[in-house]
Amino acid sequence: MTLDEITYKINGCAMKVHNTLGNGFQEVIYQRCLVIEFTKAGLSFEREKEHIVYYEGEEVGTRRADFVVEGQVMVEIKALIALENVHLAQAKNYVDAYRLPIGLLINFGSVNLQFNKVFNTKTV
What we know:
alpha+beta; Trna Endonuclease, Chain: A, domain 1; 3 helices
């Protein structure tokens, strides 16, 4: 499957969840619904995938992406009234840290579902 096909399927799953539930739930509820929709769509995924963060070769902590889909696309979900630049920065950092080519930041908290695509600017 190409990256475009994967992101198209992910967006479709997110739209189904948002159309069914609307906004106003906690992030974990949307995450659990996406598990159901990803499975129905035949997408392979890892949920809450942990990654070690290094600073100058030293381990300084870990971060968890909400999903890594098909081993290629990081998905970070939010349930906020509005996304801010810090959320885009977080998604971009995850894509770079996980060494994935692309990521999706999806916000279920607004009246209309919001999608942002972020790209890895480092060598993959």
